[in-house]
Amino acid sequence: MNQTIDLEKFSRYSRPGPRYTSYPTALEFSDAFSYDRYLSFLEQGEGPLSLYVHLPFCRSACYFCGCNVVFTSKEEKLSEYVDYLKREIDLLARHLDTDREVIQFHFGGGTPTYYKAFELDEIMNYLKKTFPNWNEEAEVSVEIDPRFFNEEQMKVFKSHGFNRISFGVQDFDPKVQEEIHRHQPYETTRAAVELARRYGIGSINTDLIYGLPYQTLESFKKTLELARSLDPDRLAVFNYAHVPWLKKTMRKFDETTIPSPEVKLAILQHTIDYLTDEGYEMIGMDHFAKPEDELFGAIAKGELHRNFQGYTTKGGANLIGIGLTSIGEGERYYAQNTKNMKEYEAAIDAGRLPFERGVELSDDDVIRKSVIMELMANFSVDIPRVEAEFGIDFADYFAEPLEKLKEFEEAGLLSISDKKIQVAPTGTLLIRNIAMPFDAYMNKYEGNKKSFSKTV
Ligand code: SF4
To answer: Which of 198, 219, 342, 404 is the most buried (most CB within 10 A)?
Structure first.
């Protein structure tokens, strides 16, 4: 069913807010969570594992990019980093039961395919030697920049059981590409997608971004049509996070060319209508999938989960972050590696994991995380589940957030009963705003415009 957005009403909700890939958000990570505490969590951990390896290098900057990236054209830097990764994996193996089952793996970046095929193979072989127990149905995925992708690399991915590929596109419009400093002809993307298909990759995702300079509703319509012509299984259509106080390259944009909240909402409205008409369904925030996709089935069962890599059906695994800046997640902690390459290397040279900071979750954090992540993934909260799991009276415990949600209820964006908070289809567009009242840390950032990107 197509949704109709009241552009004027919705644009009023445009305010800084987290994207909730974690709760508490990364702003709460600090060195109060100690290295020894992190090690004890690793040592006591049990159950399945999700491994994330960060390959931070890129050839040149895309100006919209919010990732932690190292720009280089020096091949030796890339190969040195592989050696450090292997040593980090060895260090992890000292503190972690490496026989735990791996149910999920993700190569993220940077540009993972900036690496040559033999280096990607080397990293995968080393990981599999160290963690030998991979589930046959593990979700094995990689982010690929179509401008850096060849058949040799595809063969390596195939040989290691990769079954999901996400292609970075962002926008096909030449003017937008020029402004964001990412020249990527449609034919390049098409060739990359076809290569992956030839090797039997059954789950192909394309990433688009709306809210970029010079985008208009008309230009984005064309981008969407071109993306659709690639027949992806999933599309992620992200809201551009403009945070020039954090990312210098974003300062290169002429802010007057960035579309207004009204234009962004018009783009989003069109995106939802168009993709729905084309047979896709909206899944969580920013994501669309064909109805046969397993993510779609997971929503019906309430099993969709959200983590740093987006949405997944593989919940419950401890996420181990490997490499510069990567983030790990356990039931009661988040742990992040250093973002500084020199510090990363120095830690490993000294025989320590390159852990820098993190947060240990209090009982209250765990409860709020459960509610916020359920909202972000399933657009609803099963109140009896929360009460049974945590032994609380929901109405009592969350009296303040429930009061704040009345505004959304009155606007028809959600409904609240004794059993359920259910976000209406139009309310899903404001899911970050709807989750924010449950965030115990938001008060700290009230009035600080530079804490988060805008929700609309
Ligand atoms: S968008 Fe991708 S390729 Fe561009 S700078 Fe960021 S990580 Fe590198």
So the answer is: 219
